[in-house]
Write a structure and sequence with these properties.
CATH topology of the largest domain: TIM Barrel
Distance between the termini: 37 Å
Strand order of the largest sheet: 1-2-3-4-5-6-7-8
Radius of gyration: 20 Å
Helix content: 40-55%
CATH superfamily of the largest domain: Aldolase class I
Order of helices and strands: HEHEHHEHEHHEHEHHEHEHHHHHH
CATH class of the largest domain: Alpha Beta
Strand content: 15-25%
Number of strands: 8
């Protein structure tokens, strides 16, 4: 029985968003040290990268990362079905289709947010993946494209895709402007309209609806969880990762964690050592993801500077940790 069969809707209660160049397997291992229950997502992996590239490089992950979802980018049903099979074979708990990325590079591949204009194609893609795997197939999307704020557009998109077998929709509560904005601007300029996501939940009570976009505080999480089924947090979780350490108690009813920041740092250094021995992974490829661990505490800046110092890359990770802790020691 997988985590979704065990937890049902609660499996999507809180998750960390897929973020290109950020949520690689090292980042996810770090986040799992902070929260046992949050659902973690890979970076988007294109079907081409899986069908014609280095599959282990894209799909390998540590068993401790469960529950973990693979996000795919693509628009060919047969290719997505094959990529989904690979993801399930590798052990992922969920296969997610990206229908929300607005970047022009992704648009040139005819997938991402531009797929929202072709709900029948998305339905065909979902149907092919649902037929190919036994794990949940989910969709992450925006509430619209360009500057048209038409609720009927996203309602019909969700309805059409749901008929193909998708039961979980993660909704970024902004439109995606396909022209004129960078990916960063697309996360900031189009207005947030959480009420659209709430209306989707009202219109599709049988579906799991999770909200994403602009959520940075516990008060926002609590508010949204009273209205929809789940919350996905993006950059705030990356830049202030210690927030994750409170999630299991606050949102899943677990006992309070006794783990300190120093415990987490120590555990990640042990992981760096294992990765170096097994794969030759340089410690700084892992350490870059934990630089926000002490944010807000005295000495955090100096600690971060030591771990970021390129002159120390030749030293063992444990030595760098000792140096970071000895320079204006931060409190756990």
């Amino acid at each position: 029985m997988n985590v979704f069969e065990q937890q049902g809707v609660a499996a999507w209660r809180l998750s960390v968003a897929p973020m290109m160049d950020w949520t690689d397997r090292h980042c996810r291992y770090f986040h799992r040290l902070l929260s046992r229950r949050a659902l973690l997502y890979t970076e988007m992996v294109t079907t081409g990268a899986l069908l014609h590239g280095d599959v282990p490089r894209h799909l390998d992950f540590d068993e401790t990362e469960h529950p973990v979802a693979l996000q795919l980018g693509g628009s060919e049903p047969a290719d997505l079905a094959q990529a989904a099979r690979l993801g399930e074979r590798w052990g992922y708990d969920e296969i997610n289709l990206n229908c929300g990325c607005p970047s022009e590079r992704v648009q040139r591949g005819a997938f991402g947010a531009c797929l929202m204009a072709e709900p029948r194609l998305v339905a065909d893609c979902v149907s092919a993946m649902v037929d190919a795997v036994s794990v949940p197939v989910t969709v992450k999307h925006r509430i619209g494209i360009d500057k048209t704020e038409d609720y009927g557009f996203v309602r019909d998109f969700v309805g059409t895709v749901a008929e193909a077998g998708c039961r979980v929709f993660i909704v970024h509560a902004r439109n995606a402007w396909l022209k004129g904005l960078s990916p960063k601007e697309n996360r900031e300029v189009p207005p947030l309209r959480y009420e659209v996501v709430l209306q989707l939940k009202r219109d599709f009570p049988q579906l799991v609806i999770a909200v994403n976009g602009g959520i940075t505080q516990d008060e926002q999480v609590a508010r949204e969880l009273e209205r929809v089924d789940g919350v996905m947090v993006g950059r705030e979780a990356y830049h202030h990762p210690w927030w994750l350490a409170s999630w299991d108690e606050a949102y899943f009813g677990d006992a309070p964690s006794t783990r300190t920041r120093e415990d987490v740092e120590e555990a990640l250094v042990a992981y760096m050592e294992r990765e170096a021995a097994a794969r030759g992974t340089p410690w700084h490829a892992v350490a870059r993801h934990m630089l926000g661990l002490y944010n807000g505490l005295p000495g955090a800046r100096r600690w971060r500077q030591v771990w970021s110092d390129h002159r120390l890359k030749g030293l063992p990770a444990r030595e760098v940790m000792h140096r970071a802790r000895s320079r204006e020691r931060v409190e756990a």
